[in-house]
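queue> holo job accepted (S-adenosylmethionine)
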Amino acid sequence: MAIPRSREAQEQFDRVAPGFFSSPLSYFETHGAGLVSAAGVKSGDRVLDLACGAGSASIPAASIVGRSGKLVGIDISRGMLDVAARRARTEGFHWAEFHQRPVEELDLEERFDVALCGFAVHHFDDQTTVPRVMARHLEPGGRWAFSLWAEGSSEPHRTVFNRLIRELRPDLAAAPGRSGPQGRAAIERLAHESGLSTRAIELAEVDHVLDNFDDYWHYVKTSGGRSLLTRVSEDEAQRIRDGLQAAIAPHLDSQGRLTLCMDALYVTGLR
Ligand SMILES: C[S@@+](CC[C@H](N)C(=O)[O-])C[C@H]1O[C@@H](n2cnc3c(N)ncnc32)[C@H](O)[C@@H]1O
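queue> job finished
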């Protein structure tokens, strides 16, 4: 029997959670703050962050809403939520709360001024899940924002990694990848079908520098190759690591650094 996608996500993210809030993955923090700004979060807002992960949007949102506002973060992974909750506690944001729930079943019987979701629309078989859950929890006229990876993101890693996997494990290379809605029309249709209107789709360009191969391998295990690496043995993972070290070399600068394109789209609108 196939493993339900939500359980697969939970296991995967629980495994990587300890290494998620880290400098090799700091582009999540950059985009989290960018998404909060694109959504126009302000002091006193009640904000819902769906699939909040380690808090890359929740923490800046909680900082802006302040004690007169509220931040509720939802995620399926206990490990990711623990990181987000610890960060909120460290900052003294007692108006932030985090709950372990599958987004697809969420009904908090409460309305929010703003709903956010960073890089998780594509985690659901039905891609209207996130916008529909946003619509259910927003006040009329409430603001929403979600982020998607833009075309060309994760390069040059994506091309190098896919070529290597085709050589080492062609059976895995054939497995379909998960991607979000492609193109402006598909994104707008998704929001519209869910009862939301789109205001803007904005390209946020981020060049992310990884200082050395260890940081790059951390990125691969935790993000860029996370899903695939769960399906290989430790020996094979080691072969992939060795192969990657040779294959990525032509892309390093004179100081051994690798620059990844981590461009994203911020999609915003109103309910
Ligand atoms: C790529 S991470 C993004 C985290 C965060 N939004 C950010 O931008 O840093 C995707 C998150 O979606 C969560 N997730 C995946 N499927 C989920 C589901 N069915 N319900 C709730 N959370 C889910 C994962 O646990 C993970 O924390």
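queue> The mean pLDDT is 93.
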